Predict the 3D structure of the following.
Amino acid sequence: MAIGTLHVVATPIGNLGDLSPRAAEVLRTADAVVAEDTRRTRKLFAHLGVPAPPLLSLPAFDERARLSPIVERLRAGQQVALCTDAGTPGVADPGRLLVDAAWEAGARVVPVPGPSAALAALSASGLASDRFQVIGFLPRKGVGREAALEELRGSTATAVIFEAGNRAGGTLLELAGAMGERRALLARELTKLHEELARGSLRDLAARFRGELRGEVTLVIEGAAQAAPRAREEPAEPLEEELRRRLAAGEPPTGVARQVAQARGLARREVYALITRLREGEGDPG
């Protein structure tokens, strides 16, 4: 039996010039295209100047119920392209359940990377990107929203949040109340005519964008570990004296290095190197 392929195709978030040649070719040659909104996807094919293949609707509110006929196409060996209204499918957009079902059915899954509001905003933020999480839209209200804000407050990863323009001001106020002076980026209407990017503390952004904004908003917020650390109190005991005292008391060198480095804001390897020199200088065979 032939194995079908699900191509996960990223499409422009605003500027149609961001559609890659590879993505365009996949869309042109697919046996069928799965779309979040077929009307939006027809406009994309109009831009390409080619007739659209069969379009299968996969809206977020009914994704699970519409998987079966798509999976059957994959089992029949068809080439199926998955796209959403804008950006990368499955990243705060429909598509994850279909990708999961494609794997379970034994189909090939091929990513066709491209535009993403989350990555576009993150790359322009200047904030740490070694650890980040795409939150998507926060719960609208109640306990769920409170829990989400509390989780964000304690997270050390950079957070990417999506928000509607008419709610962005209120959300910024809540974020500032939960996280204070953390640095953040507000990106509005990315890649579109009225694109706007602004960076500052959450409090500054909340004051600047108090009214309703037009369009879609992406927020990038630094994690707890990235915020400026409080000034450390200088330990009363010199570093070498503390190390000699604790080693003489029989504490394991690795434990001493870890605890002292954390308490004094030093690199653990540097503290351990000093411990090694002290032990060698005192003729410690261990």
About this structure: The two ends are 65 Å apart (CA to CA).
